[in-house]
Amino acid sequence: MATIRLGDIAPDFTAESSLGKINLYNYLGDGWGILFSHPADFTPVCTTELGTASKFKEEFDKRNVKMLALSVDGIASHHEWIKDINETQHTTVNFPIIADEDKKVSSLYDMIHPNADNNLTVRSVYIIAPDKTVKLIITYPASTGRNFHELLRVIDSLQLTAYHKVATPANWNHGEDVVVSPSIPTDEARNIFTKGVEEIKPYLRMTPDPSTV
Predict the structure, then answer these.
(1) Count of alpha carbons within 13 Å of 137, Cβ hemisphere only?
(2) Active site members
(3) In CATH, what class is 14-144?
(4) Residues of the chain scoring pLDDT < 50
(5) What would the pLDDT profile of 32-42 be if each residue is shown by its tens digit?
(6) Which of 150, 129, 153, 125 is nearest to 139 (CA)?
(7) Which among 11, 67, 145, 148 has most CB atoms closer than 10 A?
(8) What does the pLDDT read at residue 38?
């Protein structure tokens, strides 16, 4: 089974989904992607997650992030489950769910952890950048549902730090002050970040979010 680490190229694949056959790279195009797995169809936590993900799709769209879910169940099962999700979560599932009955994609992405369960995937999350590198990996146990507010927060950080020489501090949210990269001398930083640089310590400099007006 493959092991994927941060910075690795996300393995490409072609698979059947609830919206037809999908090739990962073609589906993502030149945008960002989030791939998340679910232990099984017709499970309670997964039902709430996919319903929540559907409600968050507009926020992911704003960030040019395409959503892609996965379960080891088949297409027919997915379609029946989607009916339940739409009914119970008062939404419409609006992104593809991969049918991974042969566990090909699960194996590529190391989504099955035998000490947790030999057959079902854990709750894996992969965020993939436009260059197809893996920028984030989070693994939740099957019993713990994901926080989609946190996933959006992380994407905001990843997209900000991809284009500016900054890092985001603990509990940061879009628009709040950020940390100047330690590789930039303070004098140079003040020229780069025209909104101002506060030097708390020589290694800890803060500046307003450079992506905001």
Answers:
(1) 14
(2) 46
(3) alpha beta
(4) 1, 114-115, 118
(5) 999 998 888 89
(6) 125
(7) 67
(8) 86
